[in-house]
Amino acid sequence: MPTPSSTPDPAAVAAAATAAEAAARLGAVRARLAAAANAAGRAPSDITLVAVSKTQPAEAVRTLAALGQRDFGENYLQEALPKIEALRPLGLVWHFIGQLQSNKTRPVAEHFDWVHTVDRVKLAERLAAQRPFHAPPLQVCVQVRLEDEPGKGGATAAELPAVLAAVAASPRLRLRGLMAIPPPEDLPAAQRHWFAALAGLFTEARTAHPDMDTLSMGMSGDLEPAIAEGSTLVRVGTALFGERLQSGA
């Protein structure tokens, strides 16, 4: 009969199981990313994996960080800010990927490293004015609306040049590229259609902004078609964390 000192600690057992599951999920996603990059004749190291940690507790982020994951994406400020503060000693890179409202630009400018959802000149101007001078420039992707979908943000193709110019004009911002959330599609060919459309806009925009280097597109269900069309940054949540928890934000 085991002595009390040799009895496994249930909390430790649970933590080990959680870490093992996280490692398996992360390994599987990295394998998918590498296979997609190789199939497209690209280097896997050229593609950044952003773990979308919205609705996930800080400990779930900490577990992935211990496995080497550095970039994390958040949609909801109320939920994200305490997480960022709690995990600050880890030196993680935080991406704001939720729809950005004018009255919430200050905390994004103050606490995030990247923002992917700038779609109006006004947002660019506010972020630039509110970015702390002791911080490096905020890395910015301009969100593009590829189809007229109710409730979805993004600049139209006609609006895009003005938004890009506003971001590029500020020394407190660094224009990195474009982001889009395409209409939901089940077939890879249909998914590639939308990603190709964004890639085309990216190529056009680089005529005026040749330093742009980021195409933020692709999620758990469509990262392979996105990488085939040139994505340099994929935003993956469900495949890394499992089904989303209920958000209080």
Q: What do these coordinates show?
A:
The protein has 249 residues and is of the alpha/beta class. It has a single domain, classed as Alanine racemase (TIM Barrel, Alpha-Beta Barrel), CATH 3.20.20.10. The protein is 41% helix and 15% strand. Strands 7-6-5-4-3-2-1-8 form an eight-stranded parallel beta sheet. Helix 6 links the parallel strand 5 and strand 6. Helix 4 (105-111) packs across helix 5 (121-130) and helix 5 (121-130) packs parallel to helix 6 (160-168). The protein is globular and about 65 Å long.
What is the H level of CATH, i.e. the homologous superfamily? Answer: Alanine racemase
Determine the strand fraction and express it as a percent band. 15-25%
Mean pLDDT: 92
Spatial gap, N to C terminus: 48 Å
Structural class by SSE content: alpha/beta
Name its key features.
249 residues; alpha/beta
Short description:
With 249 residues, the protein is of the alpha/beta class. The chain has helices at residues 10-39, 58-66, 77-86, 105-111, 121-130, 160-168, 188-205, 223-228, 238-241, and strands at residues 48-52, 71-74, 93-96, 114-118, 138-143, 173-179, 214-216, 233-236.
Topology:
Elements: H1 10-39, E1 48-52, H2 58-66, E2 71-74, H3 77-86, E3 93-96, H4 105-111, E4 114-118, H5 121-130, E5 138-143, H6 160-168, E6 173-179, H7 188-205, E7 214-216, H8 223-228, E8 233-236, H9 238-241
Parallel strand pairs: 1-2, 1-8, 2-3, 3-4, 4-5, 5-6, 6-7
Helix pairs in contact: 4-5, 5-6
